[in-house]
Design brief:
The chain is α+β, with helices and mostly antiparallel strands and 244 residues long. The chain has 7 helices and 16 strands. It has one domain: CNF1/YfiH-like putative cysteine hydrolases. The strands form 3 sheets. It has a 7-stranded mixed β-sheet, covered by helices on one side. Strands 5-7-10-9-11-15 form a 6-stranded mixed β-sheet. The two termini are 21 Å apart. The model has no long low-confidence stretch (mean pLDDT 96). The protein binds zinc ion (ZN). The site of zinc ion has 6 residues, from loops. The site of zinc ion (ZN) has 6 residues, from loops.
Length: 244
């Protein structure tokens, strides 16, 4: 289940957060995640004794970085990556999104966490599946992997043109009836559902997948939305995960 923490102003997955793992999908109330101070302020205030804040330079790729560091009280930027995985304690993995689909991954027994950012490019190229496979490569077991899919633009608001439709159709023909619908003559795509189906396809049990039921574009009070806001009042939400 995804719940809201009104003190921290984050949504979190009850499948993930416990005494050893801490994660959150941030809201507008945290500030614009593109500003690095938003992340630093949040972490300094809420994650005592953190070691490193990991900030990927997101480029809509399917590049995955396995991060390890001995540095303390540090900010580490990683170039050209959209997925980060670590087994470090107190290394805070972050991404920012506004309509794109943020996904978190945990293998609690092995102590591995990951986070990834997928817009349409990452989704069509199956970045979420790449993250799961990498965690398994690092010693994780499929049956222990938990996944949480965060606030994403909904099928209600995400219309796509024909070119993109055919690109998705080519890769995900079998899911077409589930992920596309037509509204007012336009084709709409449910990006979060597509990512959910990809994770399930790998054999991750439904009970291990949490997903966020609202749309970033519809919920103006809580979320920034690239599609909705364009250049006015535009920002991005911070999401993070760490082993504490
Ligand atoms: Zn919507």
């Amino acid at each position: 289940m995804i719940l809201y923490d009104s003190d921290l102003k984050i949504f979190y997955s009850t499948l993930i957060n416990d005494d050893n793992f801490f994660s959150g999908f941030g809201t507008k109330d945290l500030g614009d995640g593109r500003n690095i101070d938003t992340t630093i302020n949040f972490v300094q205030k809420n994650i005592p004794n953190f070691k490193t804040i990991v900030i990927p330079e997101q480029i809509h790729s399917t590049n995955v970085t396995v991060f390890n560091s001995n540095l303390i009280d540090n900010v580490e930027k990683i170039t050209e990556t959209d997925g980060v995985i670590t087994d470090d304690e107190k290394s805070i993995l972050t991404i920012i999104t506004a309509d794109c689909c943020p996904i978190m991954f945990v293998e609690k027994r092995q102590g591995i966490v990951g986070i990834s950012h997928q817009g349409w490019r990452g989704s069509v190229k199956r970045l979420g599946q790449k993250m799961v496979k990498k965690i398994i490569e690092l010693g994780g077991k499929k049956e222990n992997i938990i996944v949480a899919i965060g606030p994403t633009i909904g099928g209600c608001c995400y219309d796509i043109d024909d070119e993109r439709y055919f690109e998705f159709l080519e890769e995900f023909d079998g899911y077409a009836s589930k992920i596309f619908h037509r509204h007012m003559g336009k084709l709409h795509l449910n990006l979060a559902l597509l990512n959910y189906l990809q994770i399930k396809e790998l054999g991750i049990s439904e009970k291990n997948i949490d997903h966020f039921p609202f749309c970033t574009s519809c919920d103006k009070k809580r979320f920034f939305s690239f599609r909705r806001d364009k250049k006015q009042d535009y920002g991005e939400m911070l999401s993070f995960i760490c082993i504490i």
